[in-house]
TrEMBL record:
Designated name of the protein: Uncharacterized conserved protein, DUF849 family
Signal peptide region: none
Highest taxon of the lineage: Bacteria
Top-level taxonomy: Bacteria, Pseudomonadati, Pseudomonadota, Alphaproteobacteria, Rhodobacterales
Keyword Transit peptide found: no
Cofactor: Zn(2+)
GO molecular function: 3-keto-5-aminohexanoate cleavage activity; metal ion binding
Keyword set, alphabetical order: Metal-binding, Transferase, Zinc
Keyword Nucleotide-binding: no
The species this protein was found in: Paracoccus homiensis
Amino acid sequence: MTHPVNRPFIMVAPNGARRGRGDHPALPVTSDQIALTAVACHRAGADALHLHVRDGQGGHSLDAGRYREALAEIAAHVPQMTVQITTEAAGVFDVAAQLACLRDLRPHWASVSVREIARAPELAGQVYGLCADQGIRVQHILYDTADIAQMVAWRDAGIIAPEQDQVLFVLGRYRENQQSSPADLAPFRAALPDARDWMVCAFGTREHACLAAAATQGGQLRVGFENSLTDADGTPYPDNAASVAALRSLLERQP
């Protein structure tokens, strides 16, 4: 990934699979809302956007048509912003549906949870093989060191290609009240010391503190309302762009 000199790559995750306007009035749900959020976040300093789309009832969707609509809307508003789609199951989709999403959409970049694909290990070769064959960049979502062990085992077995080396460390997903801590990064780094292209996301009021700590170690950062709606004091950000701007300000103050 390329990004401006002297600061880490920043991805905004503006909505996620589960939250809606009831959680925050500025959380984007429709394609036009997501596109306008992308514009504001890009201006605030985000390099990329992690995309979730909704079905007609506002629920999580992996529909290729809905993805195409949202991708086109974002490209029309802010073509210079890189977009990564999610294949998250969110308790709704099985691995066959995740594979179908990748096959039907063939996105430029997708996040794929190792833990979720391991629900149907017989399909793992098809998932990662399709991505390799179609030039789909994969970012492996890792929730703990067991996920790392599974990813490494698949890599050693040739199921995951050597060049499929991007990872996202999800800090504190299973902590009480989903309150992440900067210390949560250490086990990931210890379990995957050879990681070169790694990103971090975190939950709760210490989201930005976790990301700032990752930045000092060379990590890339994912920030936004998917993971946290509030600042360190628990005050809600006005919108995703405000969170991105606050993170940028924090990073610029770091030695």
